[in-house]
Design a protein that fits this description.
5 helices, 4 strands, 4-stranded mixed beta sheet, alpha+beta
Amino acid sequence: MTAYQRGLGMLGLARRARALTSGFSQVEASLKAGEGSLLLLDGEISPETEKQLVPLAEKHGIRHFRLKAGELSDSLGDFRMCALVTDEGFGRRIYQLLNEE
């Protein structure tokens, strides 16, 4: 198992630990409040949606990472185009694993 795959696997752990929120409206609300540590975008996300979320994340110093098409939904077991890791520890480790390759 590669580091990238372990990072994707940690998304399920973060979700079960209630350290992850998903869906545009919840993610947008959390970003506007300055909450979160890692914004994850699916590779198939629309450019308009990405233009709305990425500046909010950058404004608050929240890292963002664009996954390959369909990986976010596969990792969460639910159709999602964006997710926000709210726990700093989970966010830091997932970002580190996803960037190892």
